[in-house]
Design brief:
8-stranded parallel beta sheet, about 600 residues, globular, alpha/beta, about 25% helix, 5-stranded antiparallel beta sheet
Length: about 600
């Protein structure tokens, strides 16, 4: 039977002849017109946050220190705690810049208008302020697991942020660490008899294997005088709770037992450590009532630890009345076999999808075939629930997707923008939950990974960051970058609204309809009992067409320029402009 496919009934004409793609001329509607016709949806328009499943979230991942300074009095931390004081130098990309929880609270209206529903904060517990020539602005050097880092504010400031976010129906997720603490324990063989050295400053500590330890080899631990009781809770101060085997090279046994860039690696095989970490995070849940956790360095912890830790915290959150408390892990691997193991054997509800990020890189930066998506999605059955994977284009470690494009030195700013936009659309409309990395919506690029992917949203004083031209704006990071009229802000708010308006796009079963052995088309179907959608992407620079065999009529609900489907005998020809996407809904 020939397929009669409806087009979008344009909001800008009264002509009934636009109802079908054949028999009369289709009305032309620009991208800008169609985007302006989309009804904005923000968190307060959705079901109450306590009831929302993870599939309904749009995450905004942010480093509080680099966002907004709401209280200049805390820029240097707490002078009554010397180890957590200082490190403020907003001109140095490796130091504290002054952003804090009060500043984030003040900017909730901006985030609300973007359409996000969940904020994921980098670790906010009290850190060692400075190690070597780097400050702990990022939060991954925790000393005290019971209080907020004073550079970011107080425990009360965190509660105020959570309360204010919840009033806007926005969730707050904490980034937590169980693999390591700050670097306090030293080795005499590496750091001297008094422990005054630091391995990342050049004093390497080669890893000593378990087999070597069994033969009597090992490091002698030392803690500098005055630092014996730096950590809270107190049990964390004893070296017996750590592996003490030297530096990790992130392979084999040392990936689990080695020190992560010199940080004190917890002996998570010990039942005492398991129970101690469970107690720490039960207290965090009871004290602050967050909506979930992102868990750092998951693959560097033995899987038996997660089998106790995850159920214990999920049960505790339930006793605290936190509905839909959700945890997802960072397993830094693009291999779905390794990633999925932590959602099944490891009992984590979900993980960040480094596999998808890798395929986005390969198809949109290296311009490899879209068939790579078929290979990736064929392994979705390995996961507990692939619709709950966290999708992202770049981050604070690897760098922004725009930077990954820019460093190829072959894409113009215009093409970088187009490829970033398409990659971002894929994180929204392929299976999984989208994550926006802060600043992407303001055209941030970055000059590298790590510290140089962590620009300030508030006016920056980092010269190398300020010298870089941003995408689709004449502004620089030297200015305040909370522009709700920025084209990329508008684009992301369009994506969030579309995502919120069509539930089947979030939870429907995904089926690959078409991929190609070149840069080009990727066409998928998502369906459930409610609805049926086609989603099409074109990763090539030029327009691409292909014939599809469909069993339904589909209506265009969000075109990118002229995203056409036309009947050709018993088949349908889909045509999509270069570096664009389109959404179609089955006609009932």
């Amino acid at each position: 039977m020939a397929l009669h496919l409806k087009t979008l009934l344009t909001l800008f004409t009264l002509s009934w002849c636009a109802a079908f793609l054949f028999g009369c001329k289709q009305e032309k509607t620009s991208v800008q017109q169609l985007q302006s016709s989309i009804t904005p949806v923000i968190a307060s328009d959705l079901m109450p946050y306590q009831q929302r499943p993870i599939e309904d979230e749009v995450f905004y991942f942010v480093l509080p220190d680099r966002f907004s300074n709401g209280d200049t009095m805390n820029d240097n931390g707490a002078n009554e705690i010397p180890i957590s004081f200082g490190g403020f130098d907003p001109s140095n990309e490796k130091y504290f810049h002054g952003g804090d929880l009060a500043g984030l609270t003040n900017k909730l209206p901006y985030l609300e208008q973007l359409g996000i529903t969940s904020i994921w904060l980098t670790p906010i517990l009290r850190n060692q302020a400075v190690q070597g020539d780097i400050a702990g602005y990022h939060g991954y050097w925790v000393l005290d697991f019971t209080e907020i880092d004073p550079h970011l504010g107080s425990n009360d400031d965190l509660k105020a942020l959570i309360n204010a976010a919840h009033k806007r129906n926005i969730k707050i997720f904490f980034d937590i660490i169980t693999n390591h603490t700050a670097d306090v324990i030293k080795y005499k063989e590496c750091h001297g008899q008094d422990g005054s050295g630091w391995s990342e400053s050049g004093e390497a500590c080669p890893y000593i294997s378990l087999a070597e330890i069994a033969q009597g080899k090992g490091y002698r631990t030392v803690i500098q005088k005055g630092n014996e009781q730096l950590k809270t809770p107190a049990w964390l101060n004893h070296p017996k709770h750590y592996h003490n085997q030297g530096d990790s090279t992130f392979s084999g046994e040392n990936s689990l037992n080695g020190d992560f860039f010199g940080l004190d690696d917890l002996n998570t095989e010990s039942q005492a450590v398991v129970e101690g970490m469970i107690d720490i995070y039960k207290h965090i849940i009871s004290e602050f009532k967050p909506d979930g956790f992102r868990i750092d360095t998951v693959k560097h912890v033995n899987i038996e630890f997660w089998q106790q830790f995850i159920p214990a915290l999920a049960d505790h959150a339930e006793t605290q009345g936190i509905e839909n408390f959700f945890m997802f892990g960072e397993v830094y691997s693009g291999n779905p076999i390794e990633l999925s193991k932590f959602t099944t054997e490891g009992t984590l509800p979900s993980v960040l999808d480094f596999g998808l990020q890798s395929v986005l890189y390969q198809t949109l930066i290296e311009q490899k075939p879209t068939a790579l998506f078929s290979t990736l999605f064929a392994q979705d059955g390995l996961y507990k629930n692939a619709n709950q994977l966290l999708n992202f284009t770049g981050n604070h470690d690897m760098g922004r997707f725009a930077y990954l494009l820019a460093k190829q030195e072959k894409f113009s700013h215009q093409e970088i923008s187009r490829r970033l936009k398409l990659a971002s659309a894929m994180t929204f409309f392929l299976r999984g939950v989208p994550v926006i990395y802060y600043g992407d919506e303001q055209g941030f690029i970055g000059t590298g990974d790590n510290h140089n992917a962590r620009q300030d949203m508030m006016p920056s004083k980092v010269a190398t960051h300020n010298a870089q031209k941003l995408l689709q704006t004449t502004a620089s990071t030297a200015q305040d970058n909370f522009d709700i009229s920025h084209p990329l802000f508008t684009y992301f708010s369009t994506l969030t609204s579309l995502y919120h308006q069509h539930k089947t796009l979030r939870v429907g079963e995904q089926e690959v309809i078409l991929t190609q052995d070149k840069a080009g088309l990727l066409v998928l179907r998502k369906q459930d009992k409610r609805d049926d959608y086609l989603i099409a992407f074109n990763t090539a620079i030029a327009e691409q067409s292909a014939l599809l065999t469909l069993d339904k009529q589909y209506q265009l609900i969000h075109p990118s320029e002229q995203a056409l489907i036309e009947t050709v005998g018993e088949q349908s020809r889909i045509s999509l402009p270069g570096l664009s996407f389109a959404l179609y809904r089955a006609i009932k």
